[in-house]
Each structure stands twice: as C-alpha cells, then as structure tokens.
Write a structure and sequence with these properties.
heterodimer; A: 326 residues; mainly alpha; 38% helix; 1% strand; B: 440 residues; mainly beta; 4-stranded antiparallel sheet; 2% helix; globular; WD repeat (chain B); Serine/threonine-protein phosphatase 2A 55 kDa regulatory subunit B (chain B); WD40_repeat_dom_sf (chain B); repeat (chain B)
Chain lengths: 326, 440
C-alpha cells in the first residue's frame, strides 16, 4: 500500500512538472520531459501492479504497435508534438486546463485505491474528495470560458466546445465514453470496468474533426451514459461536437519545417494512459496497450478522436484517462 | 594525489550577476573562458609569472568580456530561445588570434579574439584625432609609425552557424582535424565545417519515425582527441556509442556500444533518470572515456564495451533521497566531469558547493568545498566530509543540511598543470596547486 501512495505521489509530482515545463523559458526540454514520462510510467506500473481489492488491473504493459500515422500527417504531430505550439486557440485555453489533470490524477488515484472507480475524468467534476471537487469544478469553469472565447464559435450547440481538443479528453470516462447527463458528477461507478459498459460508438457519431468536448456541456451527449446504462450508440440525443472545428492546425504545420516536438503534456499523458491510444486511431481496433511514458505522435494529437468511435477498452485505466484529460 | 592543503589560496572572482553555465580552458591553459545564462562570455588570461610579484604568479585576470548570444524569439514556432551559453570550445590556435565556438540552444558562433597593442601614428592626412588635415598645412611627408598603446582586446563574430538544429543543442566538439566540428542536440548530431555556415551534414539521427517510440535522447558528444573519424555520444539511457565516420555517411549504427547492465537491486522509480549520462569526456590519451551520471563517474576503456573499468561514487548518500531530489528538480542537474592533464585524476562537482576528485592510481578521493571562506588569503582547502549516520566528526556535514541550491555543475582542469576552475553558481573559483604544479 505504501508503494501505491508513493507511486501516486510521484505521479502527481510528475504531472506538475510536465505542466510547468510548458511555461518554462526556452521551450520544452525534450530530455527532461522524457525522463519525467519514464518516471510516470514506472510509477503507474507500480501503482497498477499493487494488488488492491477492486482495483482494476491494467492490461498487458507490453509494447503495443505504434498507432498508425494519420494520413497526411507527418511524424511531427499536431498541437501535440513535443514543444509544438498548439493552435492559438488551444493555447489560449491551455493554461486553464492544465491544473485539471493534476487534480484529476490526484483525486482519482486515491479513489482507485479505495476501490471506488475514479471512473471518470469526470473526476474533474466529480466529488471524489470534497475539496477537490470544488476546485475541479472551478477548473472546468475556467476551461469553458477560454475555450469558448478561443473558439469564438457562437453556433456551437454545445457551447462549451472549445477548440482546445485536449480539454475534451477530460470529459471522457475511463472507458472513453464522454460524460453523459445520466451520470451526474459525483456518482462513482463500481469499477472503471464495470462503469464502462458503453457499447462501441459508431464512427459516424464522431465528427471528423476532433471534437473539443466539454464534459459538462456534454450532458446527454456522447456515447453511452452513466455507469448503469449504456445506451446504444446513437440512441441518445447527442450534442455533436462542433463540426466546424479545425483540425489541429499544427498537424499541417510541419510541411515546411520540422517542428520541435517537445513535450506536449496532453499527448504525453495520453500515451501514459496506455490503452487509451487505441481510441485515438481512426480505424476501429480497440485499444492496445501503448508503450507508456513515450511521447505521443500525431495520433495523440488528434484530440477529438478520443474514444468516441472505439469500443470501450476494458483495460482502460481510470485515472490515466483523467491524466489524458487535458 | 597530494593533500589538498598544498593548494594555493584560490582566486575567487565574481564573473557576473548571472549563473555561469560553462567553463573551458584553451589548449595551452593560458586562457579560460566562461559562459553564463545571460549570453555573455568572459575570458580570463593567466598572468605570466614574474619575480616582481611572486604572489600573483600565474593568476588569472579578466581578459575580455563580450555578449555572445542574445535572447531570440522564434515567431514561427512561438518559442523563446534562451541566450544561455551551453558550451564553449576553443579552437586550436593557428595564428596570433584566438578563436572559440560558443553555442546556445540553437545557434553556434565562431568568435575571433585579437589583441591590439600598437597603433599607427603620424598620418599625413589625418591629425591625432583622425580629422582630416588642411592640405595646405602639410609641408612634408612622414611615414606613420606603430607606437605601443594600451592593450585592447577585440572580439568579433566570424561565423554564425544557425538553423542547424530543431532541438536544443547540448554539446559541441572541435575535431582534431581543426577544420570541422560537430554539434549535438537531443536527437541529432551535425557535422560542420568551420568555414561554411550555410550547411551542415547530419551524421547521427536517432529521431524515431513516430515520436511516440522515443525512448532515449542524446545527452553529450565529443570527438576523439586524436582520431578525426571517431566520436562518441552518450544517451539518456546511460549508454555510450562510439561511431566511425568512415563507416557510413550517417552514423546511426554505432561501431561500439558501451553499456553497463543495470543493477536490479538498485531499481527504483528513478533508475532511468539517474542512469542518464550528463557528460562524456575522452581522456587526453584517447584510450579512455569518462562519463558522469547522477550518482557516479565512470571510466571506460575503449577496448571494453561490457562495463566501465572504474566506477566512483560521487554522492551515493543521495540514493535514498531520490524522491525529494526529483521533487525539487535536482535529479535533473547535469554535472560535468574532467580529467587532469595526465589522466590520473578525475574531478566532478556535487552539491553544497562541494566538488570531488578521484585519484585513479591511489584510489583515494577527496571532497573539497568552493566557498568564500576558503578563498581567504593563505587559506588552504580543507577536505570535507558528508556524514551519513554513524560517527560524526566535528566538521562533517550531514546529508540533510546539504544545500542543494549550491551546485557545482561546471568544472575544468588546466590541460597541463594542477589548476582547476570551479563554477559555483555565479562565482568562479580558480584553485592552483602551486607546490605540486607538475602533473604526475
């Protein structure tokens, strides 16, 4: 148990470092962020391997095949590459979204340990621990604001769909299902696995552009519902993510010059959330345990792709999803 | 190695308000260059020994100061480029002028340092202030003569090698052929010709096709001191790769891989971090390499790839404190290491302004402190000790009272004599072993 606490603490610290690295002068340091990601991976492995009742065990921690490159995307991915500047709009909302993963991770880990599924990224809005919930909610408020401002899209039905794709990840459950209205924040699912009984979401529900999903606005949108029910894909009135969202701009920016791909926190974290990676591919294929601690490539940079059209990964780690959140 | 008490009172100079980021002697040891976080380079010159002032024999005085790099902003990528000087390397002197390469994260510059100690006087058409004379007043012709003047040191940028690196440059190394040099960033190493600035050759590229597969980065690199075709680069995984440029244009495939298997009993969350090599230096003989990782320095024989031939613990008492050091970022500190001129002693820095020397022959080691107290006249450097529990002597420092903000990352050893330069934050200490100035 001590190892788990220690691992949890290290994960929190690591996330903080990755967060801070974004505002450091001189750009993101690839070496340091790589080392931090390795520590994250080690801590995660320890955390997950420490047997605890109700603790969902991670899938094989083997090396998965790298997610296929998105067509037309150079190795340097979109907003996510190491150190690539995210699209301006995204960047605007970046700082506000940063604190969340930390809180999420912090709030979620203990819950997992307590056999209460940190379930969801909702963790952000959840009330795992009282104080954190308020902070998390406040964070979400902040996220919405800038994102909306950044997006500047009035017609976005969801209202809160920022251009910032990564923020949308926060809305996802471990299983990848976006939060639904049926699952009000604060409802802990039994286990992440159990909570996620969502049926695979058909690809057509997913907009081609990465939907920046604001979890709170999601309401009835998104795949599946709460822990208890998983509506059939498409059966729930969905708030479609904005279709007019641009593709992560940075995806195309590498045409001319190579972008310095230094730590994009979200991608890093998303990779860290291993099995999550499968969700990032356009093609269905289920999640494969991605190499943890590695930097993300173009795939992770497909924020919006998240999970929506993928079958829920049974081995989705709840709090790693939260980490992916931002 | 003689006892530390034979060292002369050290010179202490406050180089600048900025933190020193690199220290380098030139090939004769006459000049010592320091770079700092503000992009400035300060060069010290050793005063010739004179009988008139025996106490100032061989002391270093400021020779020249110039701004090498300025902060820049890459508008395309919205990235600020720090002006901090990461490395300085001297070129072998080929004429009266001195040249050095200085680099920040992105741009390498070649600086030429020249002296002017004479100036022409007696122009026919100009007066003393340089104003044109009224021609009607010129009644005779004179030949201008060179008259001595106060020494003026002029520094000018001769080459700017820009846009060669996408990632942050961590090292530069001048080839023994004196025509080329290499620069290494996290993922690539480029070979430049000193006279050509608009192109470079990429000789190592470890960037994976998919950045998700990235597992290690290049942390340091150096050319072999004698074989112009050989160079080594170290990785964040603790391995060294020796490459031969004759083998292929792209030296991704190493000729030799030096790697020590990890000790499973020491495994922790931070094993990977502490095994990352922060510095690699060839010995002067060219037969050995010295590497520094977070807790140790290791000597490798080029003929043996399986493990280092010597391992020295720098501050093993930190092994149990890795978590705290991770929290306060100290675990990411990149310490440098240095050989003495005869390759018999190796030196590296530590915390609390301590630095360590290891004698390879006698296997003795010493911990010394670079502090203002030790720089008083007649002061001798007293060996320090860090106590890790057990019997504590009077002047011992306990591990918990170490000041981790005082770190000695950059050290340099004179190529021929027992003179060392220690950079302690923004102070430069120069210690000389006057009694035992010859290497043995």
């Amino acid at each position: 148990m001590e190892f788990k606490l220690e691992a949890h603490r290290i994960v929190s610290i690591s996330l903080g470092k990755i967060y801070n690295s974004r505002v450091q002068r001189g750009g993101i340091k690839l070496h340091k962020n790589l080392l931090v990601s390795l520590v994250l991976r080690s801590a995660r492995q320890v955390y997950l391997s420490d047997p605890c009742p109700g603790l969902y065990l991670a899938g094989p921690a083997g090396t998965p095949a790298p997610p296929p490159q998105q067509p037309g995307e150079p190795a340097a991915g979109p907003p996510a590459g190491w150190g690539e500047p995210p699209p301006p709009a995204a960047r605007a909302s970046w700082p506000e979204t940063e604190p969340q993963p930390e809180r999420s991770a912090v709030s979620e880990a203990p819950r997992v340990g307590d056999a209460v599924p940190a379930a969801t990224v909702t963790g952000v809005g959840d009330v795992p621990q009282g104080g954190e919930a308020d902070a998390a909610e406040a964070a979400w408020n902040r996220v919405d604001g800038p994102r909306q401002a950044a997006a500047g899209e009035a017609e976005d039905p969801a209202g809160g769909w920022g251009v910032f794709p990564l923020g949308s990840r926060a809305a996802r459950r471990p299983c990848g299902c976006p939060l639904g209205g049926q699952d009000p924040p604060g409802t802990p699912a039994a286990t992440p696995r159990a909570a996620c009984c969502c049926a695979p979401r058909p690809a057509e529900d997913e907009p081609p552009a990465p939907p920046a999903v604001c979890p709170r606005k999601r309401g009835a949108a998104g795949v599946g519902g709460g822990p208890a029910s998983c509506p059939a894909p498409g059966s729930t009135p969905l708030k479609k993510p904005r279709r007019n969202l641009e593709q992560p701009a940075s995806g195309g920016e590498d045409d001319d010059a190579e972008e310095m791909e230094t730590g994009n926190v979200a991608n890093l974290i998303s990779i860290f959330g291993s099995s999550f990676s499968g969700l990032l591919r356009k093609s269905p294929g289920g999640g494969r345990e991605e190499e943890e601690g590695e930097e993300s490539g173009p795939e992770a940079a497909e924020p919006g792709q998240i999970c929506c059209d993928k079958p829920v990964l049974r081995d989705m780690n709840p709090w790693s999803t939260a980490i992916v959140a931002f | 190695m003689r006892e530390a008490d034979t060292l002369r009172p050290p010179q202490l100079m406050e180089v600048s308000a900025d933190i020193i980021s690199t220290v380098e002697f030139n090939h004769t040891g006459e000049l010592l260059a320091t770079g700092d976080k503000g992009g400035r380079v300060v060069i010290f010159q050793r005063e010739p020994e004179s009988k008139n002032a025996p106490h100032s024999q061989g002391e270093y005085d400021v020779y020249s100061t110039f701004q090498s790099h300025e902060p820049e902003f890459d508008y395309l990528k919205s990235l600020e480029i720090e002006e901090k000087i990461n490395k300085i390397k001297w070129l072998p002197q080929q004429n009266a002028a001195h040249s050095l390469l200085s680099t920040n994260d992105k741009t390498i510059k070649l600086w030429k340092i020249t002296e002017r100690d004479k100036r022409p006087e007696g122009y026919n058409l100009k007066d003393e202030e340089g104003k044109l004379k009224d021609l009607s007043t010129v009644t005779s012709l004179q030949v201008p003569v060179l008259k001595p003047m106060d020494l003026m040191v002029e520094v000018s940028p001769r080459r700017i090698f820009a846009n060669g690196h996408t990632y942050h440059i961590n090292s530069i190394s001048v080839n023994s052929d004196c025509e080329t040099y290499m620069s290494a960033d996290d993922l690539r190493i480029n070979l430049w010709h000193l006279a050509i600035t608009d192109r470079s050759f990429n000789i190592v590229d470890i960037k994976p096709a998919n950045m998700e597969d990235l597992t290690e980065v290049i942390t340091a690199s150096e050319f072999h001191p004698h074989h112009c075709n050989l160079f080594v680069y170290s990785s964040s995984k603790g391995s060294l790769r020796l490459c031969d440029m004759r083998a292929a244009a792209l030296c991704d495939k190493h000729s030799k891989l030096f790697e020590e298997p990890e000790d499973p009993s020491n495994r922790s969350f931070f094993s990977e971090i502490i095994s990352s090599v922060s510095d690699v230096k060839f010995s002067h003989s060219g037969r050995y390499m010295l590497t520094r990782d977070y807790l140790t320095v290791k000597v490798w024989d080029l003929n043996m790839e399986a493990r280092p031939i010597e391992t020295y613990q720098v501050h093993d008492y930190l092994r149990s404190k890795l978590c705290s050091l991770y929290e306060n970022d100290c675990i990411f500190d990149k310490f440098e290491c240095a050989w003495n001129g005869s390759d018999s002693v190796i030196m590296t820095g530590a915390y609390n302004n301590f630095f360590r020397m290891f004698d390879r022959n006698t296997k003795r080691d010493v911990t010394l402190e670079a502090s203002r107290e030790s720089s008083k006249p007649r002061a001798v450097l007293k060996p320090r000790r860090v106590c890790v529990g057990g019997k504590r002597r009077r002047d011992d420092i306990s591990v918990d009272s170490l000041d981790f903000t005082k770190k000695i990352l950059h050290t340099a050893w004179h190529p021929a004599e027992n003179i060392i330069a220690i950079a302690a934050t923004n102070n430069l200490y120069i210690f000389q072993d006057k009694v035992n100035s010859e290497m043995h």
